Protein: non-specific serine/threonine protein kinase
Organism: Opuntia streptacantha
Amino acid sequence: ALPIYLPFDDPNLMNLYKKIQRANFLVPSWFSSGAKNLIKRILDPNPLTRITISEILQDEWFKKDYHPPSFADEADVNLDDVDAAFSDSGEHLVTERRERPASMNAFELISGSQGFSLESL
């Protein structure tokens, strides 16, 4: 099991961005080498070399002690019951509307951060 804490943390926002950009984080020494390597590949700031989901799923450390779920044989299903469950008129259904958050790119996010100036870039 791995601890749950932020890999990048700094009270100063500018320093935090630098740590993320440089992938400057510490991995506890008691982590296995497989766990360390996987974490480093996940937190790679370069999207071209960062590990993909399919590669994570094939990683030896990720697969360690993994047992795929086994499903019981198909039970006898009464199709009339299935039809009745899905043929409701919909009068009791409730729909929820949520406003989507504003879409921001990285430049907009950084430039909107307090105390951070892009003038030096």
Q: What stands out?
A: DSSP finds six helices and no strands in the chain. Residues 11-65 form one domain.
